[in-house]
Amino acid sequence: MELKRVVVTGLGALTPIGNTKDEYWDALVSGKSGAAPVTHFDAEKFKTQFACEVKNFEVTDFIDRKLAKRMDKFSQYAMVASDEAIADSKLDLDAVDKLRVGVIWGAGIGGLETFQEEVLNYAAGDGTPRFNPFFIPKMIADIAPGNISIKYGFMGPNYTTVSACASSANSMIDALNTIRLGHCDVIITGGSEAAVTIAGMGGFNAMHAMSTRNDSPETASRPFDANRDGFVLGEGAGAIVLEEYEHAKARGAKIYAEVVGGGLSSDAYHMTAPHPDGIGVVAVMKNCLQNAGLNPEDVDHINTHGTSTPLGDVAELKAISEVFGSHAKTININSTKSMTGHLLGAAGAIEAIASILAMEHGIVPPTINHETVDENIDPELNLTLNKAQKRDIKVAMSNTFGFGGHNACVLFKKID
């Protein structure tokens, strides 16, 4: 059967550096850091005392107070970003066949704050089980797409993908394939996460995964820098409206880009560490190119996973050099995590949005905070260091990897 073409017709972002897609884009181009001391709880005794939190956000500006109380923060973030993306798409909610509109969402953890609060409240009591009746519905990872579909009446496929930090990239690939196969006309996809909590920060600190640069939070996320010491935890959401091309064209929708391919692989190596030779990353990028029917030399820009960890950054760049050969030196490579921190299950979504907007505006956002060259990284690679660069981008790749060896890669192309 002939596969349908799939395009992007709406974007929404709620991030540590901007609470709308336009604010987010402006901050990316200007090289703004979202890292600052933690405000969600007292982190004085934690090894890491800073994070990339969403700022100046009052949920009741967007969601009714009673309804908001029934949602964990990760679900609130999902609703706000999705509302923006749906509005941006200008989808006619009265005319669209809602049986053919789905919501496929990504979350690596889900309602961690809700789980934490309920368990701590129980532990502080006398052993009598007193739990909020909304405990489970607030916590479960699949409630975010459930809430979106309930609000809008979308009755197509509705579920959450969970693959750690690759979760929202997985959700986009599932959405792409569902539309390609003709099962839906429109899917709201993306991801959200809200793990800047006592449990989240404490857990990642126990793994020695996060930066402890407490004296300079804004410079702590430094992908590819020789002195990087771990990732910076972030939170927020990114939402993308994917639509069958003919359906979008028929209603005169603005088309940001075409989604031309998605790739998946596993490192099959270690619970948390990447394979040092990037074998799984090589496979996922090759899979994605093959799925898109593109050659390595077609790619102009790669938004890397680039978390600012000592092992991960080197392994990914080695893999890029292997897949793209000499062409790798002509590609604009960057890591927007240098500004947003690592949004875990939402990372793939906000980075896909960054890639799409880079293509639209002809500008590659910088990898900020780079000071010291890492001798393990090829100096001829263009890592778009510290300053945005103008670039005519026809094809952009977005990489996202997760604990457990989960690798996902998505390719976007300028629409013909």
Largest sheet: 10 strands, mixed
* Strand residue percentage: 15-25%
**Helix count from the secondary structure assignment:** 13
- Coarse shape: globular
Give the % helix: 25-40%
**What number is the mean pLDDT?**
97
Order of helices and strands: EHEEHHEHHHEHEHEHEHEHEHHEEEE
The class by helix and strand makeup works out as alpha/beta
What can you tell me about this protein's structure?
By secondary structure, the chain is of the alpha/beta class. The strands form three sheets. Strands 5-4-6-7-1-8-14-13-9-10 form a ten-stranded mixed beta sheet, sandwiched between helices. The chain has a two-stranded antiparallel ribbon with strand order 2-3. β13 and β14 form a beta hairpin. It is globular, with a radius of gyration of 20 Å. The mean pLDDT is 97.
